[in-house]
Amino acid sequence: MRIKKNIIVCASVCVIWPQLALAALVKQETNTKAWYGNGQTTPFYRALNGSESLTPDEVKRIEKMSPAKDYDRPYVRYDVALGRKSVSGILNLSDNSYSQAQAQVNQPSVRNNQRNSLFAVGYDWNPFRFDVEYVWTKKFTYSANPVFKSPAPAMSLNAVISNKVLLMNFYLDYRSFADHIYPYAMFSAGGVYNTVQTTLTNPQAGRGLTPTTHNFSLAFGGGGGIRLGVTRSLFFDLHFRYVKAGHVNFRPEPSMYLRGNHSFYWYGLGLIYLL
Length: 275
Known about the structure:
Blueprint: H1 2-49, H2 56-65, E1 73-92, E2 110-124, E3 128-136, E4 140-144, E5 156-173, E6 181-202, E7 207-209, E8 212-229, E9 234-253, E10 256-274
């Protein structure tokens, strides 16, 4: 009888004690996981599972740990542009009181290869962008000797033309093309302020006039290009642009008036940096 009782006690100890020890271990492990989750991963767990909203502080912490977006940010841009500027279709629009009011212009156009610099600040809304751009252009020269076709008297005209160009550019990016490679189309509108310093020489009258005239013209144009991402903040910019820049006036004399259509195009290479 005593032997049976000892067997029962031993069996009870062997069966119950491991279960109690296992239960205690499970409880300790559960408490450890709960503490770790509450202190370290609970905001992320809630964000992933949507069980409850994150606090503003938690949102800021997660945003700081996330990679920066390459949109919804202001940016600055600088490009070097190689292209051609032209004044074409130059007409004689002189007053009727001018003796050569009906004469035809001998040199109706001029073209000049240019290297320009472009500076812009803007904002990227994805897929739209907008920036304000200043275009620095070189001076160029229009020369006509003689100014008018025969039988008009022989006169020579030399004009130095300079421009100040301010444009507003609107872009549409195609972001589905490839990662960090964004083709785009663009439209430009703005204004051009022209300064023309002319020198008119009339050998018959023995005189030389050097007046300076100014005029403002509206400008518009378009183009396209591609942005190549180096980082999420830095892009290479390759583009082609054409701008119709109004007209240029030549007034070497009060009653003498020539006017030409002004335009330029270029290929640009530069950098865009998102702030």
